[in-house]
Each structure stands twice: as structure tokens, then as C-alpha cells.
Design brief:
- The complex is a heterodimer.
- Chain A is α+β, with helices and mostly antiparallel strands.
- Chain A has 6 helices and 9 strands.
- Chain A is 33% helix and 20% strand.
- The two termini of chain A are 34 Å apart.
- Chain B has one domain: 2-Layer Sandwich (GMP Synthetase, Chain A, domain 3), CATH 3.30.300.
- In chain B, 46% of the residues are buried.
- The chains are: A alpha+beta, B alpha+beta.
- The interface between A and B is medium-sized, with 31 and 33 residues.
Chain lengths: 281, 83
């Protein structure tokens, strides 16, 4: 089975990108060869990309299809009702969740797409301050209840609250495909909404998961975009949540000769990449 | 440490933060077996809707988090919301 070769800011990022491309869920199912570790630049500049070669472990018959496999949206898995009967032998952290040291990424903000209509109006500044405090105290209390040593940082970004939980054991709160992290986000948002009686935009990242995933997703989207440019036609990705779709749209928006749009209804809404008219000669 | 202590603490913390009447929140741990517990949650009537959320979204989020709490103790946990 063929290898794919992927570059990334770090080995983890490159591996995550390769796994996403191959539609493999965990490192255990893959053979990974690190070609170059890359070099950390200063403040993200002047570094050298890491390069890895990855292929599925033999006997896992998995072929890349025309249909892009976009590492399913965590939001969905978070909704699964598991009544406690669900025993995914946790505590061995999922491969993606096991590396707390994600590197800061800068998503390309190329296109100014209309916001998903589910987005509430940005909150006022003084409300945001208060929301920030609520989120910080809730998350701090939550990890305290777990007995996890961790650090909570909360920032505001264009009317949205962005919280990050970092710490020794915090990846327990990421879960399979970010399911636990999304659950934490759901309850955090609920707490904010109770105090404000209006929708709030709250994102919670744990152990750098979201940042790493965004980066991996961008790498993956870029490769699919190149494929569409080379081979024509359209590629439909797996259904994703709005945040993930935005990463794909933003990435594709920065590449000439290919465009993206979304199709279907949440939670089964998918991004489609398509060669642009002009480029399709 | 009592069986399910972390589950109880975590579930109670979350639910109390969500409701309008935290003093009426009760969380009881039922031991279902050697390594399985159920947290039974009751709240003021007016609060239960929010705790469960639209289509059970919040309830399921709490279940997911409770399961992680249980794993800290090597347990499995379910959460029941009592009307």
C-alpha cells in the first residue's frame, strides 16, 4: 500500500494531516516514518517543516476513495447518547490527544464568507468581560472537581469567548475525536447562557487539540484542493461541524483554481471542493 | 474514597452551575456493581429542562463528562435525570 508524504510545522501536525488524508483514526493503525523532524523557528518564523511518510498498517484494507474522508465532526460524536453503557476503553488517550504541546497555528483568513446563521450577534464588550469571568471560573471549578492540575486561559476574539485548558492530565478531557472536549464546551456554553439568557459563542480547546486539528485539517484540505485542480471534478468531504467547515473554506479560499461550498443540513452538512470554471478551461 | 466520588463531585458541580436553584440539586450515587455506578440527578422542576437541554444535548454532554470522571476511578458511570 502506498505511502503518503506530508509536511507540517511539527511531526505531530504532519502525522495528523497524513492520518486525516488516509482516513485513519489512530496512529496505531498506521506505519509512520519520520523523514525529517523539522526545526522550530523563532516565533513561528524561519522554522523547517517536519516531513513524515505514513501508510495504513497492512491488512487494514483501506483505499483512498474519491470521497474525502474528513475525520468526522466531533460535535456529532459528542451527542451520542451513551447512557454509560459505552465503554470505549478510555484512559489510553487517543493518539491525537496525547500531545499537549500543540504549536500555535495561524489559519489563513482568506475569504470573508458569511457567518453561519446559527451564530448569534457578537456580545457587547462589558458582557464579554463578564462572560469571560464565568467561563474561567466554571472551567477552573470543573478541572478542580476532577482533581486535574491544569491551567485555564480565556480570551475573547471577535465577540466569541475562546477558552483553553492545558495541563498535565488534561487530555483526558479531550476524548475520542474531541467528544469530551465538545461536551465540556456544551456545558460551558449552557452555563454562560443561563446567566445571560441569550446565546453565547463559546469555544473550548483542551490540551491544544482544536488548534492541532485545525492545522491538520488545513493540510488535508490543501491536498484535496490540489487533487481537484489536477484531476477536475468535485470532492465531497465527510460531514463536519461549522467550525471545521470554516477551516476548509478558508484554506481553499486561499488557493487559485478551486472553490468550496457546503451542501446538506447540519449535522450532516459537508464541504464540497470543486474546480473553478476558469480553471476548468 | 467512596465509590464514584469524583463522578458525584463533577456532576454536582456542573449541574449546580447550570440551574437557577443550586441548593435544590441532589446527586446520588447508586452502586450498580463492583465497577459501575449511576449518578441520579434531581433538580427543581423548573431547572430540569435546562439541565437536559434541547434534544438532550446538555444531558448527553454531562454523561460524557461523567464517564471521564468515572474512568479516573476505574469505573463506568451512567447519569439518570429524575423528573
Amino acid at each position: 500500500m502506498e505511502f503518503v508524504e506530508v509536511r507540517g510545522k511539527s511531526v505531530e501536525v504532519a502525522v495528523a494531516g497524513a492520518l486525516a488524508e488516509l482516513g485513519i483514526e489512530s496512529e496505531e493503525q498506521a506505519e509512520i516514518e519520520v523523514i525529517s523532524e523539522g526545526k522550530k523557528g523563532f516565533l513561528g518564523m524561519g522554522g523547517e517543516d517536519a516531513v513524515v511518510k505514513v501508510r495504513p498498517k497492512p491488512k487494514k484494507k483501506r483505499r483512498r476513495r474519491r470521497r474525502g474522508k474528513g475525520s468526522g465532526s466531533g460535535e456529532n460524536s459528542g451527542q451520542r447518547s451513551d447512557q454509560g453503557t459505552d465503554t470505549r476503553g478510555q484512559s489510553k488517550p487517543s493518539s491525537q490527544g496525547s500531545r499537549p504541546k500543540g504549536e500555535g497555528q495561524k489559519p489563513k483568513r482568506a475569504s470573508s464568507r458569511p457567518k453561519p446563521k446559527s451564530d448569534p450577534e457578537p456580545a457587547k464588550a462589558e458582557d464579554l468581560d463578564e462572560q469571560t469571568e464565568i467561563v474561567e471560573s466554571f472551567l477552573t471549578g470543573l478541572i478542580g472537581a476532577f482533581g486535574i492540575e491544569g491551567e485555564v486561559t480565556v480570551e475573547t476574539n471577535k465577540g466569541a469567548i475562546e477558552a483553553a485548558v492545558a495541563g498535565e492530565h488534561s487530555e483526558a478531557l479531550v476524548g475520542n475525536k474531541g467528544a469530551v472536549m465538545n461536551a465540556v464546551q456544551e456545558v460551558t456554553r449552557t452555563v454562560v447562557q443561563r446567566r445571560f439568557h441569550q446565546p453565547a459563542r463559546v469555544r473550548v480547546d483542551v490540551a491544544g487539540y482544536r488548534a492541532r486539528r485545525r492545522e491538520a485539517l488545513a493540510i488535508y484540505a490543501e491536498r484535496l484542493a490540489k487533487q481537484v485542480i489536477d484531476e477536475g471534478g468535485e470532492i465531497m468531504l465527510e460531514p463536519m461541524n461549522p467550525a471545521d467547515r470554516k477551516v476548509v473554506h478558508d484554506t481553499v479560499g486561499g488557493i487559485d483554481g478551486v472553490e468550496s461550498y457546503s451542501e446538506g443540513d447540519d449535522p450532516r452538512r459537508s464541504v464540497v471542493l470543486s474546480k473553478t470554471e476558469a480553471a476548468a478551461e | 474514597m467512596a465509590q464514584g466520588e469524583i463522578v458525584e463531585r463533577v456532576v454536582r458541580f456542573i449541574v449546580r452551575e447550570i440551574v437557577d436553584n443550586p441548593e435544590e440539586v441532589k446527586v446520588e450515587i447508586i452502586e450498580e456493581g463492583p465497577d459501575r455506578v449511576t449518578a441520579e440527578v434531581s433538580t427543581a422542576k423548573s431547572d430540569m429542562g435546562r439541565v437536559i437541554g434541547k434534544r438532550g444535548r446538555v444531558a448527553n454532554a454531562i454523561r460524557t463528562i461523567a464517564q471521564v470522571a468515572a474512568e479516573e476511578e476505574g469505573l463506568e458511570a451512567g447519569v439518570e435525570f429524575l423528573d
